[in-house]
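Notes continue from the previous slide.

Worked example: a multi-chain complex. Inputs as given:
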Amino acid sequence: MTEEFTYSLDADGVATITWDIGPDKSMNVLSETGIRQLDAHIDRAIDDAAVKGVVITSAKPDFAAGMDLNVIAAMREKGEASGQNPAKTVFDYIMQLHGVLRKIERMGKDPKTNKGGKPVAVATPGTALGIGYEIMLAGHRRFAAENPKAKIGLPEIMVGIFPGAGGTTRLIRMLGLMGAAPFLLEGKLSDPKKAKMAGLVDEVVAPEELTAKAKEWVLSASEPDYTKPWDAKGFKIPGGGPYHPAGFQTFLGGVAMSHGKSQGAYPAIKAMLSAAYEGAMVNFDNALKIEARWFTNILMNPSSSAMIRSLFVNKQAIEKGARRPAGVPDMAVKKLGVLGAGMMGAGIAYVALNAGIEVVLVDRDQESADRGKATIEGLLDESVKKRRIDAAKKDATLTRLTATPNYEQLQGCDLIVEAVFEDLGLKAKVTEMAEAQLGPDAIFASNTSTLPITELAKGSSRPDRFVGIHFFSPVHKMMLVEIIKGEKTGDEAVAKALDFVRQIRKTPIVVNDARFFYANRCIIPYLNEGIRMIAEGVAPALIDNAARQAGMPVGPLQLTDETSLELGLKIAAATKAALGDAYEETPADDVLRNMVTHKNRLGRKSGGGFYDYDARGKRVGLWAGLAELYPPKAEQPDVAVVQNRLLAVQALEAIRALEEGVLVDIREGDVGAILGWGFAPWSGGPLSWVDMGGTQTFTDLCEELAATFGPRFAAPQLLRDMAAKGDSFYSRFATAA
Amino acid sequence: MTEAYIYDAVRTPRGKGKADGGLHEATSLRVASSVLEHIRDRNNIDTAALEDVILGCVTPVGEQGGEIARTAVLYAGYDERVPGLHINRFCASGLEAVNLAANQVKAGSGSAYVAGGVEMMSRIPMGSDGFAIGVDPYIAMKTYFVPQGISADIIATEYGFSRDDVDAYAVESQKRAATAMSEGRFDKSIVPVKDQNGVPLLEKDEFPRPGTDMQSLGALKPSFKDMGETMPGFDAVALLKYPHLEKINHVHHAGNSSGIVDGAAAVLVGDKAFGERFGLKPRARIRATAKVGNDPTIMLIGPVPATEKILRESGMSIADIDLIEVNEAFSSVVLRFLQAFDADHAKVNVNGGAIALGHPLGATGAMILGTLLDEMERQDKETGLATLCVASGMGAATIIERV
């Protein structure tokens, strides 16, 4: 068995428990083996009279990345296989973990008199997340090494669970509900300095002094120092419990605010708040049991499994190169050329510069190139203002940038990303001009969002080294990058694109070339479905509210305003031109035409669309004229019907993309949907969403929607086949990935 | 079946619910006991003949806790064999106490009851007893909990009442209350609260602001806008429940919402034999009672389904009712009632209501029943309805007939 935790005792009587899960792993994660070993070491330290106290630390540069999420996934499976109520098995398991951490906290104190015990200091050299930080919380004094890159906190809520190893109960008892809320409800992470200010750690010390300082504290600690406030008499939760006058206001407001902000879409937020509320009214040990019951409740909820799968396991797998062609050596970008210094081009250059890559930004004249440079400077200034970087760092970053109209400067670039105007002729021209300057190994990429890569590659002298890299706007904020393989795109081009995306720390998906690729292909029907409801007399507020309640970050009408109604109309026209007679005119086209052509409602940036905006561009309310143009009917549909239409129309498009081979890996379909356009994260993505209810149920829903709202909802053959066989996406395609 | 009659109804004046209010220095028990004493003394009854004393009280903590009905029975010097029952149906508690009494009399369980309620809002602030529905995340989210003011604003938004509509209603309430007071229409029921030496503390309602007009109300800021739109953002919760609304129109403020006041009320309910024994003439028959639960988020629409139910069960229509009291918790509550039944405002809340006079939570139901009966006698009308909206989405109603 691997020694994940080792134990040593020094001459002063301080036992050191050191966490290191092995040289092949860069970060510690807590496994079942680890839990047992930690437990045994703690027992030994309690039992050995020579031990005065304990320091728990890590031999790695960081303390821990968290729980091995496979353990969490396994908990549920074990529960289901146990033959008894699976919730009972999961609950018992969680209570065992609580037992270990509580043992660290009590260190053998007499249960009646509260006397005795031994001091435990936990010392993190770097990052301490999730269970890692929960172990720190169980200790009596928390030390962090000075390390501005380290992150400390409880990010569980981001993957659909909540801190369930005492983190919720302990942090609320330390900071009060109000103080703990950003860390529990938003998963806010802090560097050691900020963590100390917030009360998450007690001391920040020089890295080389970390264990020495921790030992020093252990040797000088007296009994009150290692008695937790909640184990002492008269303990009260800071800020008060739910029926204390001040605490009442906190709980009242906190619940409402969380409910509104999360749109009620996240079971983990509800469960975490219930654990906080119910736990606040009982003693600590009962509060832990309550936390464990709600944590069990969340682990048994399909939403948490789906979120963990997509947002943690599969996102990581994709980022680590699950789709990278085998056998291609590292192709990290050293010098990047960006063609076109508009918003997209400048954004791409900016993220590359931040990754330490040298960038040549080219536009048709110096003035245009400088405008791009100014955009980049603006973004850097913003980072300086927000204290993410200092002025020296800004200057150093800018030294890596060359903004020029001169294509000769592209010499030596190993990757070009073209981001000029969406015009086939123009793109062919700049491709040719750039390629003339490039070495034989360089890769050329287009950031097109609408033009086929295979078509664009015809303008290249080496189509096997031509690839699509589709960024989303704003580039520095959007996490997804779509890599598009044209007919002739070779492995090295794909590998290059993937390595570039890894360098700029975004998440890639690799799809095949087809109209609108994957993301836009799915989002356009979402927008159109919302717009056509207006024509049907559905209240516009209901359309956008229903979408948000379903977990979409922005309703289809608001999103259309953002992307502009004019663009919507243009896309419709282009699609019509491409499809010819096969194009079906929809009521959404009518609405867009009416709004744009007759009412001059072009979108947010042009003074207003479905909504009105004030002078600063802030949305103030629905445009009053909309109700005159399309009066809402007296009888409104059920919110669930609106939601089913808006989600199903996207999921169906994802399934068709898979069926047609545009989407190759279902993991990318789900991860890409959440990161690319915010598809209801609670669901784990469109395919997970379908799996959650089952393919048969979804097929039935599609039939029903098709009968009422039209053939666009007809179930694709792939879906029908799966339903007939009782397959789910994650059972059928698990090995294809 | 035995009939249940109202023999008498009394109430204290409503004192401002603040430290400078006329009743503030009196304990809740003194105020509750004062109505028990008055109804006993002016009807000259032997309290040993009472089956029970039922008192509504919404915030039963501190001096209002520990079973205030039983304590008031002893404080007022009633026969110790009369037990005392405290009940809580929030704002309808006072009416529910009368309904419970009436229905027990009708069923033959006891001959007579004193039923009413008390609330000393200046001494025991509302909410001091805690309420899980707002702070327990499970139930708060399940029911889309919002405070009542937000609910009142949801009613205004959903049913289309503008700020002018709700203000105009409030102005009319003040006007009617002023007329009623100047003509002495409340004198029959009002009994003073006295100190231990018999010196009156308060003899008249002190909450109304007779000069209130559209202009003075127009200057008031909406009370629930901030908590709705910014901190903590209850509107977002409301829109989860009512997604067809784009936003909540915040129209309510202190001037068009019920006032926070102190007060108590008591109603003497009994069968025929009880009246005969003490030589009392019944003033009205309690014809029907009803209570309902409804959507807890919009919460305050209860008078509509409660009235529908009571009319349906007693085979009546709204046209059969001569006079109506709908508790003025908020303007929009009454406006919604008028709208739902297309009712004539001239016969609804004839003497104003809680906007002008105040709303001592546990007592109001019994108070408006007394006000209704007084007005039925003044106008010589036959049939009356009293109804109230109730927190957490409930409603209660009573129909009385003169005999």
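Summary box: Chain B touches chain A through 26 residues (CB under 8 Å). The longest strand of chain B covers residues 261-270.
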